């Protein structure tokens, strides 16, 4: 019995998508970012920092999306969604699994500044500018990695589930012009049946009310 603790549209989408790619049966338990549930003792017993995702599997609960993704790949090697431990290609796979989280943290800062912080006077324009530049740098790195590749490490892997989650959000803060490889990659992701099923099961409303968030005037 596998249970994914999930918030629609959050990093738990990575795990939801991977579970679908692996064809595993699981139960979804939905939580909210705003009703205090993630701070409850019940949830903190599963995730000490009160964050999703958490995956209950094999008689334990695993937190941190990257750890869950690596664990699922290691315990389902026949699916071929990660190079084997010790294989030469493994390092590149791990780089992109963890790069995805570096990038997601920058996106999260921008979400806080542009969307969640109220009143608007509480925002920091220097931080917003800095994080927009840092996000653009990660996108340049991604654009270069995808040059001549359909997927991050060549063939589809769980690193794509980690990073694919970021794409919709990154284009809210940095315009897509100049990133043709990422734009085409997004289309390839959207055309994966498992991704489509994952979105249907766990998508929910987006936090974004606008297609694009300009930096406020200085
Ligand atoms: N590095 C963690 C980050 C998890 C994380 O920050 N999740 C967000 C949702 S995307 C969350 O649960 N936020 C709740 C909070 O900060 O209170 C991972 O990849 O699992």
From TrEMBL:
Residues 86-215 form the GST C-terminal domain. Residues 1-80 form the GST N-terminal domain. InterPro entries: Glutathione-S-Trfase_C-like (IPR010987), Glutathione-S-Trfase_C_sf (IPR036282), Glutathione_S-Trfase (IPR040079), Glutathione_S-Trfase_N (IPR004045), GST_C (IPR004046), Thioredoxin-like_sf (IPR036249). This is Glutathione S-transferase. It holds the Pfam family GST_C.
């Amino acid at each position: 019995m596998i249970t994914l603790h999930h918030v629609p549209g959050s990093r738990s989408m990575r795990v939801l998508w991977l579970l679908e790619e692996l064809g595993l049966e699981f139960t979804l338990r939905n939580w909210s970012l705003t009703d205090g549930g993630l701070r409850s003792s019940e949830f903190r017993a599963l995730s000490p920092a009160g964050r999703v995702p958490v995956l209950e599997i094999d008689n334990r609960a695993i937190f941190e999306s990257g750890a869950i993704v690596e664990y699922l790949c290691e315990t389902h090697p026949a699916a071929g969604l990660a190079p084997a431990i010790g294989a030469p290609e493994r390092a590149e796979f791990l780089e992109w699994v963890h790069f995805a989280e570096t990038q997601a943290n920058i996106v999260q800062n921008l979400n806080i500044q542009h969307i969640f912080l109220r009143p608007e006077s509480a925002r920091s324009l220097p931080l917003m500018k800095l994080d927009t530049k840092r996000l653009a740098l990660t996108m340049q790195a991604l654009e270069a990695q995808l040059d001549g590749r359909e997927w991050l490490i060549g063939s589809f892997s769980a690193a794509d589930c980690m990073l694919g989650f970021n794409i919709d959000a990154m284009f809210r803060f940095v315009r897509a012009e100049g990133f043709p490889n990422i734009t085409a990659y997004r289309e390839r992701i959207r055309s994966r049946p498992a991704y489509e099923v994952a979105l249907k099961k766990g998508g929910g409303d987006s936090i974004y009310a606008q297609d694009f968030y300009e930096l406020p005037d200085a």
